[in-house]
Automatic annotation (TrEMBL):
Pathway: Metabolic intermediate biosynthesis; chorismate biosynthesis; chorismate from D-erythrose 4-phosphate and phosphoenolpyruvate: step 3/7. The active site is at residues 22, 100. The lineage of its organism: Bacteria, Pseudomonadati, Pseudomonadota, Gammaproteobacteria, Enterobacterales. It comes from Buchnera aphidicola. It is an enzyme of class 4 (lyase). The record marks 17 as: Transition state stabilizer. One of its GO terms (molecular function) is 3-dehydroquinate dehydratase activity. Substrate binds at residues 74, 80, 87, 101-102, 111. Catalyzes a trans-dehydration via an enolate intermediate. Gene3D superfamilies: Dehydroquinase, class II (3.40.50.9100). This is 3-dehydroquinate dehydratase.
Length: 148
């Protein structure tokens, strides 16, 4: 039961990057919390962060051969710009949940459009890093009930 957490550009700076918006937890804290929760439920959580669109696309391409059942994806700024990442996800046909730490609908207008929402299983936005935990919970439920 492998699932993949993917974080896009600038999320390596979590904890110090605009903490009033993105909170005080670092990416390492977040990964630790998620891995622990996944392990308790017999799920192996792999994680990847990159600032490069190219590397994110390649990681998505390899998800199938790594037998990834589900993806938790925060595309960060690529949410609003990357048709290439959207196409990569369409190409692999692995369900994913879109997560945003901040409420993208309560910020700059250009953040209100996502190239991912309509092809995702669902979107969680505005609940801080808890959003990743809710996504994980849904995935655990679905895998446990053997649903897609
Ligand atoms: C983000 C929201 C995006 O608009 C922004 O570019 C990010 C992070 C979030 O998690 O709230 O880098 O995806």
């Amino acid at each position: 039961n492998n699932i993949l957490l993917i974080n896009g550009p600038n999320l390596n700076l979590l904890g110090t990057r605009q903490p009033e918006i993105y909170g005080k937890y670092t990416l390492i804290d977040l990964i630790k919390i998620l891995k622990k929760q996944a392990k308790k439920n017999d799920i192996n959580l792999l994680d990847f962060q990159s600032n490069s669109e190219h590397l994110l696309i390649e990681k998505i391409h390899t998800a199938k051969e790594k037998l990834i059942r589900y993806i938790i994806f925060n595309p960060a700024a690529f949410t609003h710009s990357s048709i290439a990442l959207r196409d990569a996800l369409l190409a692999i046909d692995i369900p994913f949940i879109e997560v945003h730490i901040s409420n993208i609908y309560a910020r700059d207008n250009f953040r209100s459009h996502s190239w991912f929402s309509d092809i995702s299983q669902g979107v969680i936005s505005g609940f801080g890093i808890d959003g990743y935990l809710w996504a994980l919970k849904t995935i655990i439920n679905r895998i446990t009930n053997n649903k897609k």
